[in-house]
Amino acid sequence: MTPPSPASIPLTSSLLAVVSSWALVTLGVAHIAFGIVKYRATLRDAVVAGFVGRFAEPEPRRTAFWFVLFGLPLLLAGHVAVRAAGRADNELLGLIGGYVFATSLIGVAAFPRSPFPASLIVSVLLILAGRGF
Prior knowledge:
The two termini are 25 Å apart. With 133 residues, the chain is an all-alpha fold. It has one domain (14-130). The chain is built from five helices and no strands.
């Protein structure tokens, strides 16, 4: 496969690419912030109990841990998308959008009454940005 010539590589991203990338970052930050607020007492109890090994039991601690932790890869994907948008790397934006779409679709199916539809929308926007829209 021949690499694209520099003249064929776009120098700027679309507004959709930039907005959808930052929307993914926002979802990651919101996921972490919401989790810390929602599970504040549960997280505090685990920290007071020594933190290390304190999330296996009881179930609310495990839920709090995974809820907050899931925000980090979401945030990472958003930051990678922002960098891809900054370099007009539409292929990477589409790839990120595809992974977020698959994750969001599973999330919507598992938890229909949740915020997963928001990430489903963002993922579709990233896929469209990856297609050059």
